[in-house]
């Protein structure tokens, strides 16, 4: 049985609207998201110079976008935890720490990939 709700183009349009609201909220409330978007915009043109093939360029840009994606998910986790309550709880702290760790891993991956491609380009 099909899930009730919008279908087809209406569903796609509404989903795009929800995504736009999410981007707007992230930009307004999340300074780390703003910093990562600015860094992504600044480094993306450099990826086209640094990458020697379309695959390298895609990998460089994908790592940047990966950080942004993980930051959005981390912000969503934090918003839900904050919505549930402000009293300290072990699981709330763990959820926030895990989200932060995911962002850190994404950033490390970006540094490793960019460093490897830069090393290959300059050697």
Produce the secondary structure layout:
Layout: H1 8-29, H2 31-50, H3 54-84, H4 90-122
Helix pairs in contact: 2-3, 3-4
Overall description:
The protein is an all-alpha fold and 123 residues long. It has a single domain (30-122), classed as Helix Hairpins (Orthogonal Bundle), CATH 1.10.287.3610. Helices cover 86% and strands 0% of the residues. It has 4 helices and no strands. Helix 2 (31-50) packs antiparallel against helix 3 and helix 3 (54-84) packs antiparallel against helix 4 (90-122). The protein is globular. The mean pLDDT is 95.
CATH architecture title: Orthogonal Bundle
Residue fraction in strands: under 5%
Low-confidence parts, pLDDT < 50 over ≥5 residues? none
**What is the N-to-C succession of helices and strands?**
HHHH
Report a brief summary of the structure.
The protein has helices spanning 8-29, 31-50, 54-84, 90-122. The chain has a single domain (30-122), classed as Helix Hairpins (Orthogonal Bundle), CATH 1.10.287.3610.
Keywords:
globular, 123 residues, Helix Hairpins, mainly alpha
């Amino acid at each position: 049985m099909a899930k009730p709700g919008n279908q087809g183009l209406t569903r796609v349009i509404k989903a795009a609207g929800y995504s736009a609201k999410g981007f707007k909220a992230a930009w307004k409330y999340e300074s780390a998201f703003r910093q990562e978007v600015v860094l992504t915009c600044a480094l993306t043109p450099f990826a086209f110079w640094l990458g020697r093939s379309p695959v390298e360029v895609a990998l460089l840009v994908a790592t940047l976008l990966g950080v942004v994606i993980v930051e959005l998910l981390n912000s969503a986790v934090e918003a839900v935890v904050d919505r549930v309550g402000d009293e300290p709880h072990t699981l709330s702290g763990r959820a926030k720490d895990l989200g932060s760790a995911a962002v850190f891993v994404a950033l490390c991956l970006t540094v490793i990939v960019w460093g490897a491609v830069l090393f290959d380009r300059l050697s």
